[in-house]
Specification:
It holds the Pfam family FMO-like. The chain is an alpha/beta fold and about 550 residues long. The protein has two domains: about 290 residues, FAD/NAD(P)-binding domain, CATH 3.50.50; about 220 residues, no CATH class. It contains 16 helices and 20 strands. Strands 1, 2, 3, 4, 5, 6, 17 and 18 form an eight-stranded mixed sheet that branches. Bound molecules: ligand NA7.
Length: about 550
């Protein structure tokens, strides 16, 4: 432990993204002294780092925000159906300023370690700035997806041009007139390529797996639409808290087989015109992710669209998946269309793998050297473990998170880990699989309920007269939760995907896990509500 004088606070929050901002607000408004530390120079979290062109939310604007600031809900501008990265960054910083949270925040500060002190029942938090905090509560809101996954390709460091990862996008890069390669065709790669295609001299996608993507339906929101949403916000959120996805007020309970083949095609076409991947997946058919036949039919419809849109048969072939529609659903603002331009090309890595990176660019196994100015990795994240590996968190009896997660990340409800008293995660492993903006809200509320529960007993006083009661989940509850998450994911077609961060299989060497609680928001809320009603029996 550092010899530096400790600053005593009630709570330390790590991270000032969607989760950390709300957690800081919640502590502050409940009267706790709180320090939020953030490694970036401002609030924003993933929306600060992922500044690549085209970055935007694929949850619709009216739901990609906090529900608890009613005034903002009604007045804060969101002119389009989806909010872009700069808009989200601005919004989060607006919330920080509006609620005077900046005074509780410390930027350009990373947590190096957090160590549980069982004598004093405190967390000692050491930062790279030399700051040391002692806090009764520690909340890590560091994001599940905040550490870049950089695949180890031979010769990676030999490239003489500019090498970038979408996760840490620099401000000084201008791609105009450049020859650019993108490795990665997940939601990030698809957004990025669609956005940069008009301005680069040449764009080549080095694609390992083609994906099924549907249109976002991005476009302006009229004054009438906004008025209608404003007039119904309470009712909308009532439905959202009852939904699995946290995105949709209308999740279908009708299986695909209940429609005739003609009706299905009409519905697919309607969904395609409406846009939004989650709407496409869940609003009209209930079984796209659970019934293989329904899934194949959906995949076939999208593949038909690819064939219609992409004129060059070679490019169309490369862009057409041969798999189920089983990845995290994607949507785009014209992705397939960019391949109709002569300066946009695709290398199908299934046929011609990368041999190595060379100073001039990428050498593929057929001996071709693709000369490049800029090489962009849109290769995703080392989810959860990557994030938590940046810091050393040591709980009871010297037990570290790295040890706790030796069989892959786990928690109870995405929030608590056995052996880590008075510590909580926002967006930890096995939280609800739902819209992130709603997930952070329900998790923070649950954390505050847990804290209020022990504090109302009067046990956790600053005076230290009594040993404060601790909040610590039972180990058997965490183990059962993990089993439950495995079971709930068992029937999902998403499980058939390889290389998925949702199943911990995208980074070599990581243990496969089920990252989410698949029943989503509704199921998670039912369980945690019961937990609160019964006086938190899962906790010691
Ligand atoms: P994803 O969804 O993990 O996608 C990563 C992409 O990078 C995907 O196309 C991968 O191909 C590709 N990739 C990864 N490693 C390699 C190597 N070694 N060679 C070639 N291609 C590779 O990350 P995103 O950033 O797009 O999205 C992550 C989340 O962010 C998303 O779910 C949203 O919640 C926001 P693969 O498909 O594995 O063959």
């Amino acid at each position: 432990m550092s010899s530096q004088k400790e600053t005593r606070v009630d709570a330390v929050v790590v991270g000032a993204g969607f989760g950390g901002v709300y957690q800081t607000y919640s502590f502050k408004s409940a009267g706790y002294s709180v320090r939020c530390i953030e490694r970036a120079p401002t609030a924003g979290g993933v929306w600060y780092w992922n500044r690549y062109p085209g970055a935007m939310s694929d949850t619709e604007s009216y739901l990609y925000r906090y529900s608890w600031d009613k005034e903002d809900l009604l007045t804060y501008p969101w002119p389009n159906r989806y909010v872009t990265q700069p808009e989200i960054l601005k919004y989060l910083n607006h919330v920080v300023d509006k609620h005077n949270l900046r005074e509780s925040m410390q930027f350009n500060t990373s947590m190096e370690s957090a160590t549980w002190d069982a004598e004093q029942n405190l967390w000692h938090v050491v930062c790279d700035t030399g700051d040391v905090f002692a806090a009764r509560y520690l909340v890590t809101a560091m994001g599940a997806l905040s550490e870049a996954h950089f695949p180890q390709i031979a010769g990676l460091n030999s490239f003489a041009g500019r090498l970038l990862h979408t996760q840490d996008w620099p401000d000084d890069i201008d791609l105009t007139g450049k020859t650019v390669a993108v490795i990665g065709s997940g939601s990030t790669g698809v957004q990025l390529m669609t956005a940069i295609a008009p301005r680069v001299k040449r764009l080549v996608s080095f694609q390992r797996s083609p994906q099924h993507s549907v249109p976002t339906g991005q476009g302006p929101v009229s004054e009438e639409e906004r008025k209608e949403i404003n007039a119904n916000y309470d009712k909308i959120y009532e439905k959202i808290w009852q939904s699995n996805s946290g995105f949709l007020t209308n999740e279908s309970d009708r299986p695909m087989s209940s429609y005739t083949p003609e009706q299905r095609q009409e519905i697919f076409e309607w969904l395609w015109q409406q846009g939004n991947a989650f709407r496409f997946n869940m609003s009209k058919f209930s079984d796209i992710t659970t019934n293989e036949e329904a899934n194949r039919e959906t995949a076939k419809f999208i593949e038909g669209k690819i064939a219609q849109i992409v004129k060059d048969p070679k490019k169309a072939k490369a862009l057409t998946p041969k798999t189920l529609y089983h990845r995290r659903p994607l949507c785009d603002t014209g992705y397939y269309y960019i391949f109709n331009q002569d300066h946009v090309d695709i290398v199908d890595l299934r046929e011609t793998p990368i041999e190595s990176i060379v100073p001039e660019g990428i050498r593929t196994k057929d001996g071709t050297v693709h000369e490049l100015d800029v090489l962009i990795f849109a290769t995703g994240f080392d989810a959860l473990e990557g994030t938590y590996a940046r810091t050393k968190i040591t709980g009871r009896d010297g037990h570290t998170i790295a040890e706790h997660w030796k069989n892959g990340p786990s928690s109870f409800a995405g929030v608590s880990m056995a052996g880590f008293p008075n510590m909580f995660m926002v967006f930890g492993p096995q939280g609800p699989m739902s819209n992130g903006a709603t997930v952070v809200e329900v998790e923070v509320r649950f954390i505050m309920q847990l804290i209020a529960n022990v504090e109302k007993s009067g046990a956790a006083t600053e005076s230290g007269a009594k040993k404060p009661k601790l909040i610590e989940v039972k180990p058997e509850v965490e183990a059962q939760w993990r089993k439950l998450c495995d079971k709930e994911a068992e029937t999902s077609i998403l499980k058939k995907a390889t290389n998925s961060w949702i199943f911990g299989t995208n980074v070599p060497g990581r243990k496969p896990i089920v990252t989410f609680y698949f029943p989503g928001l509704k199921g998670w809320l039912e369980i945690t509500r019961k937990e609160a009603e019964q006086g938190f029996p899962s906790y010691m």
